[in-house]
Automatic annotation (TrEMBL):
Domain of life: Eukaryota
SUPFAM superfamilies: ApaG-like, F-box domain
InterPro entries in the cross-refs: ApaG_domain, ApaG_sf, F-box-like_dom_sf
One Pfam entry name: DUF525
Domain ApaG as annotated: residue spans: 312-450
Official protein name in the record: ApaG domain-containing protein
Length: 450
């Protein structure tokens, strides 16, 4: 009996695609993705023509890279979306494309926010570094940087570095994109460090405090030019820390929830620095924090401006807003207590009214603060004025703002209290004194520390 004939060999995938109609083949190539499409283009003249469809590459660029125009990584125009995809792949093909898109969109959004709200700071952002510069930095440090951190610096080399020029430093001193706070003589404004400054400051710190860095792959990624405040990234596990006042002894606090950090995830790794910056951008975009003027200089203020961290109360037309910020770098013993700075904003949005009578102004006379720790009163303070001032409030004026600070034993707490005002002015009262309430606002160590 004759042996059965062997089955015909299966046609190559391209043969099956060749028989498809235009819309069907476009759909198949679209679902396959950009890299398989590039391979198919080499199979036949017909497939090459189908893959060359610019609408396909527009979709690939949007989905994989977040591009809405055919431009190179420097923003320069290119002749087509297909060329753009090729250029981006050549530049960033060593990274997962979802991570490339994520980091690109972060810097694009941050740049947009700064340009619209803080153009002085936008001008301090630097052009991204090359892979060769990253490799040189890693060689100098003696270890590899986390993938998300490397991508952050490929797109933007953070901010202009500080120099030996005191006047130049002073001009950009309040332009830190992380921001800060000011109370009494404690003034902090944090800048994101460029790659060359990271290497320089990390090397110097390692030489000065070898016990802190011994066996740990730490780099300094953000610092303050005024009162020292330092953020460090652990390149082994991707965790981000802020140094306390005892940083020379190795004391640091985590700045990002540890559960979110995935430094070795093959699909979408994320380290503490990327998560920290993304959270900071969200707070800027939703107006949780805003820019503020301080002695004619604009800066990003870290005092929260929206609930639940910022509370608000109106009494007889006088509005009081209050919020606080954890201050890890302030001198003290973080093992036993924490330091907080709080911001109080006083205003009369429409009119001061007492007993059905409207007054053109009112003046603060005294204050009463109650500070609680886990519902236990730890401080009950009364005093005249605020920081030596007795502000007069009138309808429509800008808020009167003042900042102070308070230590608190570890654990959640809150500040509440009241102000005593008089209608008119203290020198010429127009009615009886009245009490203005301060709604309780929280004192707590947050999940994200800035």
């Amino acid at each position: 009996m004759a042996s059965p004939l062997p089955p015909d060999p299966a046609p190559p995938p391209s043969a099956g695609l060749e028989s498809m109609e235009g819309l069907v083949i476009d759909t198949v190539i679209s679902k396959a993705g950009a890299r398989p499409a590039a391979v198919l283009a080499c199979a036949s003249t017909r497939l090459r023509a189908a893959v060359a469809d610019e609408s396909l590459w527009r979709r690939f660029c949007a989905e994989d890279l977040g591009l809405d125009a055919p431009v190179d990584p420097d923003g320069q125009p290119l002749p087509s979306f297909q060329v753009a995809y090729k250029v981006w792949l050549e530049s960033f093909g060593m990274y997962p494309l979802p991570l490339v898109k994520r980091v690109k969109e972060f810097w694009s959004s941050m740049n947009t926010w700064l340009s619209e709200n803080f153009p002085e700071a936008a001008k301090t952002l630097c052009k991204g570094v090359t892979e060769a510069q990253l490799k040189s930095a890693e060689d100098d440090l003696g270890f590899k940087l986390p993938m998300p951190t490397k991508l952050l610096y490929r797109f933007c080399n953070a901010q202009l570095p500080f120099s030996e020029n005191h006047e130049a430093n002073k001009r950009i001193s309040t332009h830190g994109i992380i921001g800060g706070y000011a109370f009494y003589d404690h003034w902090v404004n944090v800048h994101l460090s460029p790659l060359e400054q990271i290497v320089e400051e990390t090397t110097e710190f390692c030489r000065e405090f070898p016990d802190v860095f011994s066996g740990r792959k730490l780099i300094i990624v953000a610092t303050s030019w005024f009162h020292p405040k330092t953020f460090l990234l652990n390149c082994s596990n991707g965790e981000l820390y802020v140094g306390t006042n005892n940083l020379p002894l190795g004391e640091m606090l985590p700045c990002v929830p540890k559960a979110l950090i995935k430094p070795t995830d093959n699909d979408l790794p994320q380290d503490g620095l990327l998560l920290w910056l993304e959270e900071h951008l969200r707070r800027l975009q939703n107006s949780m924090i805003k820019t503020r003027m301080l002695t004619n200089l604009r800066y990003i203020s870290l005092y929260p401006e929206a609930p639940p961290s910022c509370t608000s109360a109106v009494t007889n037309g006088v509005k009081v807003r209050g919020s606080a910020v954890f201050v890890p770098e302030h001198p003290g013993d973080p093992q036993r207590s924490c330091m907080y700075t709080y911001s109080i904003r006083l205003s009369v949005p429409e009119a001061c009214m007492l007993g059905g009578v409207y007054y053109s102004s009112c003046q603060l006379n005294s204050r009463h603060w109650t500070i609680r720790s886990r519902d236990r009163v730890v401080s009950d303070v009364r005093g005249e004025g605020v920081i030596g001032q007795y502000p007069v409030l009138s309808p429509g004026q800008d808020e009167f703002v003042y900042e102070s600070c308070t230590p608190l034993a570890k654990g959640p707490g809150a500040v509440e209290g009241s102000f005593l005002f008089v209608p008119g002015k203290l020198s010429r009262p127009e009615g009886k004194p009245f009490e203005v309430m301060v709604a309780p606002f929280p004192l707590e160590v947050p999940e994200y520390i800035f």
